[in-house]
Specification:
Blueprint lengths: L6 H12 L3 H23 L2 H20 L9 H22 L10 H24 L3 H12 L4 H8 L3 H29 L4
Helix pairs in contact: 1-2, 2-3, 2-4, 3-4, 5-8, 6-8, 7-8
Length: 194
């Protein structure tokens, strides 16, 4: 039952909207906004969602009336109510199908930032260790570990024997590893958390 609109006005309202009367659309909004909001709030228990649903319902109703989809203009209130019920149910169904939100740990950003700093520190140490090697040892490590060449291919490219390449690679890796280990143990010893 419409509060301020008689049965004749209901028919007139829907017909005027179908004919493009924007004043009639404003009257419809004034007539049904509060009821749609109360219905939406009762079902969703969320003010913001209820406000969004009011907009969605009113737009759907006005769009349908503009297209002449209400066959019995005397049933405007039932049409609005049915549209509201369907859109609310659709929203609730969509919400129930969303995976539950898990709260993120408060220290997540800190952990990620700390990990990035540690990674950057390790890279810096690797570069420092590599700079301490001879040019040829750096080439051997690069050709082995980055480019994936076999000792025989490296030996041919550098004019060495495969055995020399293997030996120099092992020595260079040992130097890099020891340099990084020493630097990291000093860092941990000087750390205020140790």
């Amino acid at each position: 039952m419409l509060s301020a609109t008689s049965a004749g006005d209901v028919r007139s309202l829907s017909e005027r909207i179908r004919q493009g009367d924007t004043t009639a659309e404003t009257e419809l909004v004034g007539e049904f906004t509060q009821r749609i909001f109360v219905m939406s709030l009762a079902r969703t228990h969320d003010w913001e969602t209820a406000r969004e649903l009011v907009q969605d319902v009113l737009m759907a109703v006005i769009s349908a009336l503009r297209k002449g989809q209400l066959h019995d203009p005397y049933k405007l209130a039932a049409f609005v109510h049915g549209t509201a019920r369907n859109l609310i149910n659709n929203r609730l169904r969509a919400e129930s199908q969303k995976p539950p939100l898990e709260p993120l740990p408060e220290d997540l950003a800190q952990v990620s930032f700390t990990q990035q700093l540690e990674h950057a520190d390790r890279l810096r140490l690797v570069h420092q260790a590599l700079e301490r090697l001879s040019d040829e040892d750096r080439k051997i490590l690069r050709m082995t570990m980055v480019e994936g060449h076999k000792p025989g291919e490296i030996a041919a490219a550098l004019g060495l024997t495969s055995e020399v390449v293997r030996t120099r690679k092992l020595r260079a890796l040992k130097k890099v590893t020891e340099f990084i280990r020493k630097k990291m143990s000093r860092t941990r010893a000087n750390s205020p958390h140790s």
